Amino acid sequence: MACGRSTLLLDSGETKDDAELEGAACPCGNETFNVAVGFAGYEGSNDVRWVYLGLRCTDDGVLGVYTDWKIDYTPSSHLYERV
User: Fold this and answer.
1) 70: DSSP letter
2) Which of 44, 31, 48 is nearest to 83 (CA)?
3) Which residue has better confidence, 9 or 1?
4) 5 SS3 class
């Protein structure tokens, strides 16, 4: 937060032109979060199938998944290293 910089995660730089970017806010009104990335993979493979972006409000601790997207290409295991 201190630097005020925005960062594209994982492969989102390749799809950002097609995305509708919006700000995030907790129901309490806070806009500062801890960020976590979750993955769902294919059984028997290291490839990523889905990516989930979870946020935790730094004021009241409320958790939520704020966006997710399907990975429809392989290989995709390199995404684990981009977090």
Assistant:
1) E
2) 48
3) 9
4) coil
Interval 25-66: pLDDT, tens: 999 999 999 999 999 999 999 999 999 999 999 999 999 998
Sign of CA dihedral 64, 69, 70, 72: negative
Nearest to 24 by CA among 50, 80, 62, 51: 62
Among 35, 81, 83, which residue's Cα sits nearest to residue 58?
Answer: 35
Q: Which tokens sit at 70?
A: 């399907």
Contact 24, 58 (CB under 8 A): no
47 to 12, 20, 73: CA distances (angstroms): 17, 26, 9
Tokens 């989102």 belong to 12
Classify residue 76 by its DSSP letter. Answer: -
